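Margin note: ligand = S-adenosylmethionine.
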Amino acid sequence: MVREDEVRTAERTVAWPETTDAGVIFIGRICTPWTSRLECPRQGRRDGPLCRIDVFDPWAEALKGIGDFTQIELLYWLHRSRRDLVLQSPRNDGTTRGTFALRSPVRPNPIGTSIVALIGVEGSTLLVRGLDCLDGTPLIDIKPDRCQFTPLAPPQPGDFQIGDKAGDV
Ligand code: SAM
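Resulting structure:
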């Protein structure tokens, strides 16, 4: 059975740094039907339940134009995750995989992303389908889905650059 916040036998944690590098602000809250990680889907589905995104003031004005898109990308803070695992054992069978080779919620910066269907916009509230996070999960950003988005700003040289090396990598 999966338990919340456990460290399994083969898994490895690291010491947590004393300082952080960036400040994140929560711009809203996500309302979903799930209150336990043990019930939450691992990835959202387009035919999943309708979920509500409440955008906080003063950020509601930043939603202007969002209704032009049928798909949007949400970034959220998986606030109930531990953050110190470098090796994880999803199957709990003694084998491990690195955190960055997984989409596990357990990661140093527990950012979740989903491309969701935008069903409606009601003032500062968005109605969406396709989420996989707990009720009350903090929202950190909203972007138009990149496939539906054409840059609005004038082009710049890097937009057309192909094949050059960046340094010696
Ligand atoms: N779709 C996102 C992604 O790929 O970046 C998240 C995927 S993650 C595997 C989804 C799982 O994270 C859920 O099944 C649940 O176990 C867990 N989860 C959801 N909301 C969470 C929260 N607020 N805090 C911690 N864990 C959460």
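The chain has one domain: 23-148.
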